[in-house]
Structure formats: C-alpha cells, structure tokens
Specification:
Length: about 240
C-alpha cells in the first residue's frame, strides 16, 4: 500500500517571540522532517519548537528554484516539510510564487496563519486601532520603493483617509514617509516607531510626524521597524 505524501505547510512564525506562534504551527514544527525558514527575518529562537531530529535550513542564501527543488525532493521522499515565514505568511510573505511553483509539480500545500507585527506592536503599546467614533479602519501597507505599489494604493492616497495605519518595509524611505504623514495627519500628530516588536530588543518610540526621520536617525533604526500613525496612537 502506497503511503500518502504529506502536504507542504506554509506557517507563520509570528513577530519574533516564540510564544506568539500558533499552537497549530508549533505542532507542525514538532512533527516536521525539514523546516525551511526565512533566515533573514525569522529569529532562530522560534526554532525551539522543532523536533530534535528536524533539519532546519535557512532560505536566506537560496533563490526560488533552489527552495522549490529542496521542497520537491523532501516531498517525494515522504518527508514533512514546513516553510516558515515571519509574521503571517500571507502578508509580504512571497508565498504566492512558491505555491504557484508547487502547483506546477502537483505538490499539495496548506497555510497556517500567524501573528503579524502590527498586532504585536499594538499589544506592546496597549493600543486599540479601531476606536468608536474616532476610526474604524486599519490600513496595513508600505511605501512604493524597490517593490512598486499600484497608483491607487500610494501612501499619499491611503494617508488621506486619516485612519489607523501601520507602515511596513519603508524605513529606507523614511523622509518621504515623514513628508506624507505630516502632510495628512499634521506635523504634531503623534506617530510610533515600533522596533523589533516581541523580540528581546523591542523598543517603542513616540514622535511627532515631523520628527520621524530625525528620531530614526538618532536611535539608529534603519530596518526591522513599523511606523504607526493615526488618531489611535494619541488616544
């Protein structure tokens, strides 16, 4: 009798703290034969949940084809494979291109959601994004850069709503982010810089929108941080 092969699992590692991974993802890591993790983003501390004999492989030095071929070989050998992404895999996780490749090979997969950094940040800040009669919308986005965004989703357009906003992957363009937020929320509107939320190095900095760039420079923050804006920050 032929043994059914195990579907590949795309799992969210959460924002960094191993305790913020889901129970389902933890169980998948414990049973996995191979974990391919986003080594530049997923802290190795999260790998504490993998089994003693589980192979752990960082994808930091691998291209898409190398990742897929490693998954394919393990799948064909009846191995349990977990592809571990930071936060939630559906959010800036680049899983669509991987799933498309697996579809070409007829390899089944499942997705386990995770906690994204915006929610770890609001927890650290004791903040609610959606306040009655203040704002009922949360925008998760990034500024256009090396990865472009559609014209209808430019940061200027989204910031005009004055809703709660968490801006990912945009510190390389902090001067432009500052200009847009100050122009839409006001120079004196309070923003937060959430650095490595849920990690041991976590820091939250509050600053007027007009001083975002200066604060990032002063604190030597150039990556691994969210910019959070909107009336909920000041509540």
């Amino acid at each position: 009798m032929t043994q059914d092969k195990h579907p590949v699992i795309f799992a969210g590692a959460g924002p960094g703290d191993p305790d913020l991974i889901t129970v389902r993802a933890k169980n998948a890591l414990e049973k996995a034969d191979l974990v391919i993790y986003a080594g530049s983003l997923v802290p190795e501390a999260v790998l504490c949940w993998k089994g003693e004999r589980t192979e752990a492989l960082s994808s930091a030095g691998l291209d898409l084809d190398e990742i897929i071929q490693k998954i394919k070989k393990s799948y064909e050998n009846n191995k349990r494979v977990v592809r571990l992404h930071t936060g939630d895999p559906s959010f800036y996780g680049a899983i669509f291109e991987q799933m498309s490749e697996l579809d070409e090979y007829g390899i089944p997969y499942q997705v386990i959601p995770g906690v994204t950094a915006a929610f770890a940040a609001s927890a650290a800040m004791d903040m609610e994004y959606t306040l009655p009669e203040v704002t009922q919308t949360l925008i998760l986005t990034r500024i256009s850069g090396r990865t472009p965004v559609p014209d209808t989703e430019k940061l200027e357009t989204l910031a005009a709503h004055n809703a709660s906003m968490a801006i990912y992957l945009s510190l390389a363009h902090i001067d432009k982010v500052q200009e847009i937020l100050a122009g839409n929320y006001g120079n004196d509107s309070l923003c937060a810089i959430a650095y490595k939320v849920s990690h041991p190095e976590e820091k939250i900095f509050y600053t007027p929108a007009s001083e975002l760039a200066a604060t990032c420079g002063k604190e030597n923050i150039s990556r691994h941080a969210l910019i959070i804006a909107g009336p909920s920050v000041e509540a």
